[in-house]
Design a protein that fits this description.
The protein has 4 helices and no strands. With about 180 residues, the protein is an all-alpha fold. It has one domain. Helix 1 packs antiparallel against helix 2 and helix 1 runs antiparallel to helix 4. The radius of gyration is 20 Å and the shape is elongated.
């Protein structure tokens, strides 16, 4: 991940913007290309057909779920983060909603991680067989890169952004209560 960026020092809305522009954009552009390539390899590679069929199906399901997940983040959670960064209003009522949204996001993150673990296992840690064609080798290398980006995104959200959001909500709730 980006070692030179001090994410812990950034405001939550800045982290959300970074996630959208760096990770979501990359996952959206790379995902469909990989899905197409995996589908082609499934048809062309007889020695690896069973595994490639399973990998292709898992990856397509992952993309579908990931697409829905990113939309929820970009159209619900991240705008909420941006708005909360600007406001000084009453946040007490929003806390339960935020916690449930973050719990759901974390559950989905676990599902994505589990699916990628299955793909990793089926692909022998993204290692092509000795007789694999160059397309299979390239596809497995890009799939490995896709997983790395996905895991970095999940780490950034679960371990930096989400705790900052909870802290921000709690701080603003306490501030609002003491002002009353």
């Amino acid at each position: 991940m980006y070692q030179h960026i001090a994410f812990n020092q950034l405001e939550p809305h800045c982290i959300a913007e970074f996630i959208t522009s760096r990770y979501h954009a990359q996952l959206r552009s790379l995902g469909p290309l990989l899905a197409t390539q995996l589908s082609k390899l499934r048809e062309e590679n007889s020695s690896f057909r069973q595994e490639m069929t399973a990998i292709s199906g898992l990856f397509q399901r992952l993309l579908d779920d990931l697409s829905s997940h990113m939309r929820k983040e970009e159209f619900v959670l991240f705008p909420y983060v941006k708005e909360r960064s600007r406001e000084q209003g009453d946040f007490v009522q929003s806390m339960p909603l935020l916690n449930s949204v973050l719990q759901q996001m974390r559950r989905e993150h676990r599902q994505f991680t589990d699916t990628m673990s299955q793909i990793r296992r089926l692909s022998n840690n993204f290692t092509p067989s000795e007789d694999a064609c160059s397309q299979t080798r390239l596809c497995l290398a890009v799939l490995n890169e896709f997983e790395s980006d996905l895991l970095d995104n999940i780490y950034l959200e679960n371990n930096i952004l989400f705790p900052k959001l909870i802290e921000m909500e709690q701080g603003l709730s306490i501030h609002t209560q003491s002002a009353s």
